[in-house]
Specification:
Elements lengths: L2 E2 L26 E5 L30 H17 L7 E6 L3 E6 L8 E6 L6 H6 L3 H4 L7 H16 L6 H4 L19 H8 L6 H20 L13 H14 L1 E4 L5 E4 L8 E2 L6 E6 L2 E3 L5 E4 L2 E6 L8 E5 L5 H8 L2 E2 L5 E5 L8 H11 L6 E5 L6 H10 L14 H4 L10 H21 L4 H10 L5 H28 L7 H8 L8 H22 L3
Parallel strand pairs: 8-13
Antiparallel strand pairs: 1-14, 2-9, 2-13, 3-4, 4-13, 5-12, 6-7, 9-12, 10-11, 15-16
Helix pairs in contact: 4-8, 7-8, 11-13, 13-15, 14-15
């Protein structure tokens, strides 16, 4: 599948801390994959006359010199090696269709380490708080979580200039441009972001608002108070926005042995291109350990490593599966769209403040969910059952609130919420889903007819085409989900609810018709007659 460029002019284009920009932003899982389809000859810079920048390597809308890009990446690989890392199993290359990326330099087997980068070269929340700016930002609680701290760490290291230990990496502006890549929506003009917001519900305007809100706090509490340490020439709103865009698009998630996932911006690990269909490796953390027999060699430093999960031939492209469940999220985070655009959309729901909020949060925590999770809705699939379970929990109250008592806790999510609770609760849950789909559809601009016309008449390289393709796909996903929820809502009378299931489990089926009631009375009358005859003494 080819990536659609978002360069050019014209109209166009979640948030809790730690979590779709923030269940997604704060803790996104990044998977590294390997694609063995291409041979190394197809990736040599000699074949590139006008390089098309890669999704992660370069902006698609900026013009770069191939030799400079490859030379910068090669220099960074050598520097990483001098710092205790290793990238001998890969080489940076350019292709005419994918831009800058990595290919293998030899055949690798499952479990082989392709790239090892010492963690002391990473930009992260920890590195920011441990640096000389840490004392200034220790009370900072950004909406964009780790990515805001990574952005601050990046700006701080740039301010240090020659004094920064990361200068060999950060000075390569072909790979980390101070102004960001122009295809990343965060650096677009407001009217362009508004156009994107009418093409996807991924939350482009909300993301931009989060950046500005975080910056406003920093300006008031940090930058204005220490202008010498935080000069506006480095820490301007434009520079901060570009740094956040880079942090989101180029960071990887490093997962340690305990399963703790941490976003980090690391040299070399931001270079692989995207292949969403065939993941074949993972980024992991490796602790320091002695090298060689009896530890006679130097210790390998704590590192982030790219590990192959299957055999890969020499010269194969090393690709990553960028995070993003939908095309809209991929565009918002990474700045490109892939064709074909699947008819799917990620829809977010949130708990309300009510008297049972603490109990509901405890149930969600036990289920491994946040208070505002997001679910993927596909045109060709029924919605995930856990979405309805969440909505039933959210709407739990009144006569059904007894299920929140501690005695039901262990079975509430696993059993009771997976099935209808009561007619009133199910109607409220499905009604909210229908309303949420309708609101999302209202956010999308244009119409199906207009989008189809644009897709038929506009070149694929045009931004209007890309927005129409994205909007058409999300509209189809939302319409399919809305129809499913509406169908379920119309069939409430045929459902079995908690009380009926409970009575049936006790062998006490409810009486629902006059015939059943008459039959029950007849049985009662006969039983009463037998008792009367036995009790009488004639």
């Amino acid at each position: 599948m080819g990536a659609l460029s978002l360069g050019g002019v014209g109209a166009p284009i979640h948030n809790e801390k730690g979590g779709a920009a923030m269940a997604r932003i704060g803790l996104r899982a990044t998977f590294i994959c390997l694609s063995s389809a291409a041979a190394s000859a197809a990736f040599t810079s000699a074949q590139v006359s006008s390089p098309r920048p890669s999704a992660r390597g370069f902006s698609r809308s900026c013009v770069l010199v191939a030799s400079e890009a490859v030379a910068d990446a090669q220099a960074i690989a050598a520097w990483v090696g001098a710092c205790g890392g290793n990238a001998d199993a890969v080489a940076p290359v350019l292709s005419s269709d994918r831009g800058l990326g990595l290919v293998t330099t030899r055949t690798v087997k499952r479990g082989d380490v392709l790239v090892r980068v010492p963690l002391n070269l990473a930009l992260s929340t920890e590195s920011a708080l441990r640096s000389s700016i840490g004392v200034y930002i220790e009370s900072f609680e950004p909406a964009l979580a780790d990515y805001a701290f990574i952005a601050l760490a990046l700006l701080h290291e740039r301010r240090l200039g020659d004094q920064s230990e990361l200068k060999p990496w950060l000075a390569c502006e072909s790979l980390l441009p101070p102004g960001g890549f122009s295809d990343l929506p965060l650096v677009w003009e407001p009217e362009e972001i508004a156009a994107l917001d009418s093409a996807t519900i991924a939350g482009a305007a909300a993301r931009r608002d989060d950046v500005l809100a975080d910056y406003a706090w920093l300006a008031e509490n940090v930058f204005d108070a220490s202008p010498v340490f935080f000069p506006m020439s480095v820490f301007s709103v434009e520079a901060y926005t570009a740094a956040v865009a880079l942090a989101i698009s180029r960071s990887v998630i490093v997962t340690d042995a305990d399963g703790v996932a941490t976003p980090m911006l690391l040299p070399l690990l931001d270079l692989p291109n995207h292949d969403g269909a065939n993941p074949g490796a993972l980024v992991q953390a490796r602790v320091a350990k002695d090298g060689g027999m009896f530890g006679q060699q130097a210790k390998a430093p704590p590192s982030a490593v790219l590990v192959a999960t299957r055999e890969l031939a020499e010269g194969a492209a090393v690709c990553v599966r960028y995070v993003g469940d939908t095309a809209g999220e991929l565009l918002l985070d990474q700045g490109f769209v892939e064709e074909p655009v699947p008819p799917a959309v990620a829809l977010r729901f949130e708990l309300n403040e009510d008297r049972f909020l603490d109990e509901k949060l405890e149930v969600l925590e036990d289920a491994g969910l946040s208070a505002s999770p997001s679910w993927l809705l596909r045109e060709d699939e029924e919605p995930n059952g856990e979405l309805l379970a969440f909505l039933r929990l959210k709407r739990l109250g009144g006569a059904d609130a007894f299920l929140l008592e501690p005695v039901f806790f262990s079975a509430l999510w696993r059993e009771h919420l997976q099935l209808p609770v009561s007619q009133e609760n199910e109607a409220a849950a499905l009604g909210e889903a229908v309303a949420r789909c309708a609101a999302a559809l209202d956010q999308l601009g244009g119409s199906v007819q207009l989008d189809l016309q644009v897709l038929a008449e506009t070149p694929k390289s045009d931004r209007q085409y890309q927005l129409a393709a994205l909007r058409y796909a999300e509209r189809r996903g939302l319409q399919a989900a809305a129809r499913w929820f509406e169908t379920q809502l119309s069939g409430l009378k045929g459902l079995e609810f908690y009380q009926e299931r409970r009575l049936a489990g006790l062998g006490l089926n409810p009486v629902e018709t006059k015939e059943e009631l008459d039959a029950l009375r007849a049985v009662g009358d006969r039983a009463a007659g037998r008792r009367f005859e036995q009790d009488m003494e004639w």
